[in-house]
Amino acid sequence: MLLSWVKFIGYALCLFLFGYISCSRAAKISSLSSITEGFMGVFFLALATSFPEFITSVLAVKNGLFDLALGNIFGSLLSNLFILIFLDLIFRKSGFLKNSGYKNILAVFVLQALMIAAVIYRYFMPSGMSLFNFGFENILVIFAYAVFLKNELSENSQKQSAEAGTGKAPVFKSWIVFLVGLLGIGFFSHLTVIQSKIIVESSGLNYVFFGTLFVGFTTSLPELIVTLSALLRGSKSMAIGNIIGSNAFDIAIIVFLELLSSDMPILGKISLMHINTLFFVQVVTLALFVLLMFKKFNKIYGIILLILLILPLIIIF
């Protein structure tokens, strides 16, 4: 059993390493191109840091471990919010959250609301309203994700117009390293899923708890290092964009997982216990949106929100 945990931690560290490599290259690509830091965080860095969640969940679904797959995604939503608020408390002098925009947070709130409704609906009607095992609620998720990206795409287009013809240096090497990092993430995500199954089956833990806490946190390690690195470089927009973009992308991953389902939409195969995690994530997201909108976010509220994010882990354990 000890050896299984040692392997799991080792694979987690490798995920962390390759996640860092991919994300550092993504930041380099942004600095050498006409891509804004906000869009780099919301889309490209979110893609890189969410790749462990994507690969891990895909492999879990292929092995029939649906609660592990969804626990990984929902646990990542929780971990990412925890990272964002926790780092704001550490960087309290700069207070990077209180001066940030809140519209993207509202978009993520809508995405999460759709997911909660979909989980409840699929619990009572596992195979209802679907075509070839693809739930129609995913159309709403795709639309909401497109709206989420619209504002950042618009700002990025303005920067591209402003910098047209400036002769940026080639970034081919950075793109190659970025893709190599993604391949490394894919390889160690596969090993992480295998080791997770061994630990759960030999320890008596349930897949919901293990996926939400251990796998969800492990696959969120790239978000932690990228967000921290961005803050240390003074790039607040990239730091916030990475976390918010990752949460939006994590929800969009479920749409792809639906395509892998063999006999019914994937949400119809999971435990309703996932609602606990989604509910607290949604409450914290809404509270964060309201506090930022009215510029009331402070240290006390941050601590309260962190406590709320810990509660679902206690409940599902």
What features would you describe in this structure?
The chain has a two-stranded antiparallel sheet with strand order 1-2. Strand 1 and strand 2 form a beta hairpin. The protein contains 11 helices and 2 strands. It is an all-alpha fold and 317 residues long. The chain has a single domain, classed as A middle domain of Talin 1, CATH 1.20.1420.30. The longest helix has 32 residues.
| Count of the separate structural domains | 1
What is the string of helix and strand elements? Answer: HHHHEEHHHHHHH
Instruction: Tell me the fraction of residues in β-strands, as a range.
Output: under 5%
CATH class: Mainly Alpha
Q: Provide the gyration radius in Å.
A: 19 Å
CATH fold node name: A middle domain of Talin 1
**Averaging pLDDT over every residue, what do you get?**
78
What's the helical proportion of residues? over 70%
Q: Helix segment count?
A: 11
Strand order of the largest sheet: 1-2
Largest sheet: 2 strands, antiparallel
What is the overall shape? globular
Low-confidence stretches: 163-168
Task: State the total count of DSSP E strands.
Answer: 2
